[in-house]
Amino acid sequence: MPDAGCRDATRSITLTDGTATRTREATPGDLAPVQELHRRCSLGSRALRYHAGKSGISPAEWRQLSNPERGTTLVTTPAERADHVIAMTNVMRTDQQGVGELAILVEDAWQCRGLGTALAAHAATVARREGHHTLTAAVAASNKPMLHVLQRLDATPTEATGPVLDLRIPL
């Protein structure tokens, strides 16, 4: 396991329209803002992220996602509103040594502004710091924006399970 001192994942991201955001490591106390993020996301966005119309994250699920032993979850906020989560990025450990799993949820109003691309690149950096050599992502074949984002990271499909593509991203 990497040194805990390497876990600082805070990053400022400026979107294509000049809007400033801040991405940081999630804490257990971020559950309420993350649940609000899920409520603001359309059913379609949640379905593309979870492959189902999941309405939110339970406290038990959040404990798993915000547990550093399981991986790293990042939350993104507008720079001027630290309590308003607009995106969640997960880089979670898998049962394969050195392989992490990537997932990103961006609030609908913040999509198509370069945020997903920047978060994916930042997640790759976080994954490398945590000792991963590969990221995987399960992406709906219909999720063209996310497939485009991952192609920029040299992702390659390894398998198709129905409407879901499993992709590998070398780090």
TrEMBL record:
It holds the Pfam family Acetyltransf_1. Its EC number is 2.3.-.-. Keywords: Acyltransferase, Transferase. The keyword Transferase applies. It comes from the Bacteria. InterPro entries: Acyl_CoA_acyltransferase (IPR016181), GNAT_dom (IPR000182). One of its GO terms (molecular function) is acyltransferase activity. It is an enzyme of class 2 (transferase). Residues 21-171 form the N-acetyltransferase domain. This is GNAT family N-acetyltransferase. It comes from Streptomyces bullii.
